[in-house]
Amino acid sequence: MNARPRPQSEALFDAAQALIPGGVNSPVRAWKAVGGTPVHVARGYGPLVIDVDGYEYIDLVMSYGPLMLGHAPASVTEAIIEAAERGTTYGAPTGGEVQLARKIVELVPCVEKVRLVNSGTEATMSALRLARAHTGRDALIKFDGNYHGHGDSFLVKAGSGALTLGEPDSPGVPKALAELTLVADYNDLASVEALFDQNPDRIAAVFVEPVAGNMGTVPPVAGFLEGLRELCTRHGAVLVFDEVMTGFRVARGGYMERCGVMPDLVTLGKVIGGGLPIGAYGGRAELMNQVAPAGKMYQAGTLSGNPLAVAAGVAMLNELSEPGVYEGLEATGARLERGLLAAAAKHGVPMVVGRVGSMLCPYLAASEVTTFGDVMASDRARWVPFFHGMLERGVLLPPSPFEAWFLSTAHDDATIDQVIEAADGALAAI
Ligand SMILES: Cc1ncc(COP(=O)(O)O)c(C=O)c1O
Ligand SMILES: N[C@H](C=O)CCC(=O)O
């Protein structure tokens, strides 16, 4: 199949490379892992995006997770327009912030109080500072291949774009700070226990993506999150679930609602902003009351609680509160998983699918993927022609085998069947 010519995307990418580092404002968008020119998007509606050359694609990037209702859902768009007409930012508290905070407190089980920030990165940086302030300790444990945004303390064995570019430990992070980040193996409780034993009274927090979504999609094995809870309680460390990706995606109350394990703090982002920039961290009142001005741990933001983001988030969470939404997303995810596995089996391509609800990742691998090592052992070279085969058949995937695919309520059965048909063709050709 011949690649479709994309002169407009190419011209824009050339111009962007002269103006913006690597031509993009977030590294994973540069298609370094798959090669070629990134598709530059002109607009999106429902499950589709249209590029600047006029081609239409079924979108499985979905802005890396926020767009639970597809592109430009009327309720969210109207809420943004109404809010913008009243002014875009005030630097003063608003009723909208209270509405969004109330929704989060009502729906996310571990949250009694929540602070809104501007991105997932800010949320995790702030949660880490709070854990350090609370415990008076400096070290943290994170997991190989988990990604918590680009705060210095987290760019150690990081997933997502850092992994894609082969830079999981970024230059520019002070060595003294990086040494405080201890790295354990995801889904391996013994590796966490060993770090606690080797570092008595040093560990402020354990940060975990309860479903690892920045090395594809790797659900936790039975007992892993329960074990982290027990270890943190035993050693006086703060357990932080980074649900920036999974919050309101895998269930209204995030993955903690599905698994029943309660962290001390949670970080949120993506969905709660309805597609506008936002982040949040929250937890028990006793912890959150240490944040300024209630307490001494300083954290602030000129645009925090931005009226547009908050209005979009409230509209999004209202729609997600409708009955049947998550059951529908589960069915959509299951349909795609079944179709992908059937297509792979038909063409003799080894495949396993990691999936929780509407986030998923097919690995070109013959056996179960539960660890970072399993992810790295999957056939990433063969994934590249698969990506391009899908693209040429009108399906836009995240441009890296380490990124999750995201579905929305706008992806109906007919759309999913088109994705499966494209996968059938793409897998036949690799
Ligand atoms: C689990 C997780 N935590 C934190 C972040 C950082 O969020 P943001 O990109 O909004 O800074 C991301 C995504 O980038 C994420 O997937
Ligand atoms: N995997 C990342 C976040 O979830 C993708 C977003 C980005 O880094 O641009």
SSE order and pairing:
Layout: H1 7-19, E1 41-45, E2 48-51, E3 56-59, H2 74-85, H3 95-107, E4 113-117, H4 120-135, E5 139-143, H5 160-164, H6 175-178, E6 181-184, H7 189-198, E7 203-208, H8 224-235, E8 238-242, H9 255-259, E9 265-268, E10 279-283, H10 285-288, H11 307-320, H12 325-346, E11 352-356, E12 359-363, H13 372-377, H14 380-392, E13 395-396, E14 405-406, H15 413-428
Parallel strand pairs: 3-13, 5-6, 5-7, 7-8, 8-9
Antiparallel strand pairs: 1-2, 2-3, 4-10, 9-10, 11-12, 12-14
Helix pairs in contact: 2-11, 3-11, 7-8, 12-15, 14-15
This protein binds pyridoxal-5'-phosphate and ligand LHPZP3FS.
Task: Explain what the structure shows.
The protein is of the alpha/beta class and 430 residues long. The protein has 2 domains: 7-60 and 324-428, Alpha-Beta Complex (Aspartate Aminotransferase, domain 1); 74-320, Aspartate Aminotransferase, domain 2, CATH 3.40.640.10. It is built from 15 helices and 14 strands. The protein has helices spanning 7-19, 74-85, 95-107, 120-135, 160-164, 175-178, 189-198, 224-235, 255-259, 285-288, 307-320, 325-346, 372-377, 380-392, 413-428; strands spanning 41-45, 48-51, 56-59, 113-117, 139-143, 181-184, 203-208, 238-242, 265-268, 279-283, 352-356, 359-363, 395-396, 405-406. Strands 4-10-9-8-7-5-6 form a 7-stranded mixed sheet, sandwiched between helices. Strands 1-2-3-13 form a 4-stranded mixed sheet. Helix 3 packs parallel to helix 11, helix 7 (189-198) runs parallel beside helix 8 and helix 12 (325-346) runs parallel beside helix 15. The longest helix is centred in the C-terminal third of the chain and has 22 residues, at 325-346. Its EC number is 5.4.3.8.
